[in-house]
Design brief:
The protein folds into three domains: 131 residues, GAF domain (Beta-Lactamase), CATH 3.30.450.40; 146 residues, Beta-Lactamase, CATH 3.30.450.40; 126 residues, GAF domain (Beta-Lactamase, 2-Layer Sandwich), CATH 3.30.450. The chain is an alpha+beta fold and 440 residues long. Helix 3 runs parallel beside helix 7. The chain contains eleven helices and 15 strands. The protein is 44% helix and 24% strand. The strands form three sheets. A six-stranded antiparallel sheet has the order 6-5-4-9-8-7, sandwiched between helices. A hairpin with a 2-residue loop joins strand 14 and strand 15. The longest helix is centred in the N-terminal third of the chain and has 53 residues.
């Protein structure tokens, strides 16, 4: 046990003996009491004091300190002075205890306020999660804002594992990154704190990154560049795998408290919930779309087959049905069927809002002509940017107002007998599934 000035309690001094014995100690002349007070005598000679009186500060029979008075001459204190000093000591104990109780009460209030703020923030984030199944970004943004505010951090960020790197998906605060949210991808390396957190799947708390050059060389380099010192990083773990991390930083050396670390761990769990909920929802949506598309294709195929079975001797209803079905399956599309006639292609069926030409020469300067001559599907994303490759196609597109074009050759025994043409007035490429739905 030490006194407030850092000196250990020692019976060889008046103050030390006063506290240890819990009673007043009165030395008339330190210089003449070297045997009883060796340390005190040495100090007295050094500082030029002689008479000393120690009055213990007693709180419920425990000595919490000492009231020490000294004189530079040999002049003992009177009984009246000792009684007065005892009264002062009692008043000092009352003042010290009142201050301690006030500080304890304020600390308790701060702890309760901080706990309430953290609980409120957690509840707010959970509300955002429940309302934002379709928008994980809102959840991540709420998490980093709350983490930075409640932990008194300069900034907070969430990064997700993407391949062999970490992509910045949310950020709030003053410390910059080298790129924008959603685009910046950082390497996943052990020399950086963020990489180590993910690779080791453990929380890392560094009081001063600049003092950890050997352990985190990349981290120190970034700290010098962007001006941060204290870092806390918590992994986002799902099913035993680290899928990312939440990071908070301070521009000064000021470690985070245990309560703040616990809070960031809670936010990390919530981030995992939000990301996983969104992933599962998107999987269900994708599967639903896939099943819906499959059913639509099957229905369209069945409809065409029904028309074929009813129109054995009439080709036109079949061609018209195929053209109409193509527009149903390929959104925002206009469809045309052209058959080979001599040295050109004649339109035999059409469905959609765009005009069509009745007959055009069979050459490679327009999309259907090239599809027939090459016996391959020809897909042009924007005809208005393909004037040199498809000069006739460019002129037709300007005249009729279409941009994206897909032509599929109609093959019989390896010979192209015509073309199936899909057009869009906007630049929107046809998907692989849309292309594959029409046999060559």
């Amino acid at each position: 046990m030490n006194l407030a000035d850092g000196r250990p309690l020692d019976r060889g001094t008046v103050s030390g003996r006063t506290v240890l014995m819990r009673e007043p100690v009165h030395v008339h002349d330190y210089h003449a009491a070297a045997d009883k007070f060796p340390l005190g005598s040495t100090l007295a000679q050094r500082h030029g004091t002689h008479t000393a009186l120690g009055i213990p500060l007693l709180l419920e029979d425990d000595a919490i300190g000492c009231l020490l008075v000294r004189r530079t001459e040999v002049l003992p204190f009177s009984d009246q002075q000792i009684r007065l000093l005892k009264a002062f000591a009692d008043q000092a104990v009352i003042a010290i205890e009142n201050t301690r109780l006030l500080e304890a009460e304020q600390a308790s209030k701060r702890e309760l306020t901080e706990s309430l703020e953290q609980q409120t923030a957690t509840a707010d984030v959970l509300k955002v999660i429940s309302r934002s199944v379709l928008d994980v970004q809102k959840v991540l943004d709420a998490l980093v804002e709350s983490a930075a505010r409640l932990c008194n951090a300069f900034d907070a960020a969430i990064l997700q594992v993407v391949g062999d790197g970490l992509r910045l998906v949310a950020h709030h605060g003053q410390i910059p990154f080298t790129g924008p949210v959603g685009q910046l991808t950082l390497p996943l390396v052990r020399g950086a704190i963020m990489g180590r957190v993910v690779l080791d799947r453990r929380t890392i708390h560094v009081a001063d990154v600049l003092a950890e050059a050997d352990e985190y060389p990349e981290g120190r380099k970034n700290a010098l560049r962007f001006g941060f010192r204290t870092v806390l990083a918590v992994p986002l773990v799902h099913a035993g795998e680290a899928i990312g991390l939440i990071l908070i930083r301070r521009g000064e050396v000021r470690p985070f408290t245990e309560r703040q670390i616990e809070l960031v761990n809670t936010f990390a769990d919530q981030a995992v919930i939000a990301i996983e909920n969104t992933r599962l929802f998107e999987e269900v949506q994708a599967r639903t779309r896939e099943l819906t598309e499959s059913l639509t294709y099957q229905t369209a195929t069945s409809e065409v087959l029904n028309v074929i079975s009813r129109s054995k001797f009439d080709l036109q209803p079949v061609l018209d049905t195929i053209a109409r079905t193509a527009c149903t399956l390929c959104e925002e599309a206009d469809s045309t069927i052209q058959l080979r006639e001599g040295d050109g292609l004649r339109t035999v069926a059409h469905y959609g809002p765009l005009p069509v030409g009745a007959f055009r020469p069979l050459d490679r300067s327009w999309v259907p002509g090239r599809a027939v001559m090459d016996r391959l599907p020809i897909h042009v994303h924007d005809l208005l940017t393909a004037q040199q490759e498809f000069p006739l196609g460019y002129e037709i597109a300007k005249q009729f107002g279409h941009r994206t074009s897909l032509a599929i050759p109609l093959l019989r025994d390896g010979f192209a007998i015509g073309s199936f043409l899909l057009r869009r007035t906007v630049v929107r490429a046809f998907t692989d599934k849309e292309i594959a739905s029409w046999p060559t």
